[in-house]
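ingest -> validate -> predict -> emit
validate: passed (alphabet ok, no gaps, 226 aa)
predict: started
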Amino acid sequence: MGDMRSANPPASSGHKWVRQHRSWLVIALFLLAVLLCIAFVDTAYERIDEPIESIPLVASIAQMVSDAGARKGGGPILALVVIILAGRRWKYIIRNVVAGLVVQTATVQVLKDLTGRPRPPDSEGLTVFYGPGTDFHSFPSSHAAFAFMLATVAAAYFPRWRWLAYAGATAIALSRVLLDRHFISDIMVGAFIGYVAAYLVLRWWPARESGAEAQENISSSEVSVP
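emit:
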């Protein structure tokens, strides 16, 4: 019988290149999306946002959600809740949260100082970057950066609840837009910085499994011998 062709032929060189450079492609596409948002979406939204932001109920909810992610508000409380829920792993998750906070805060602050972007009310809805030496610090959003940093760490320690962590982080980021404190591109970049900061920290100090998760992984990896 002649040689049979494999049911799964080897991937083409193009597919291999995409797989090898997937992370960089994702980053490039994200940066392109941010540029398009700065050029078109930010200004377009600022032209139509007043009817949405003027609804009292929307403003009240957005303010409560925003306060939940503020560094001088509910942010430390959220972090404390995540640490407490980690149980015996609290020492490890504190290390991840603190390191992620340092990386995220430093990156955000440097970009704020370098870009000098006014907040929407100060820029009359226009896309303006004045650069260093100004008192404008809209880009990127520190609320979004903190929320997504904490959500990413929480997702690593509590995989089953990652959807809740990221949903909460998204709500905090969007609240800043609804309160007219940030442009959409501000929260996009802030969220990206928070995620990357936590990702890098977790690569250096991986999340510790709980006792139940470790036992479950051991049981699933056991091979029965006849």
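The chain has one domain: 22-209.
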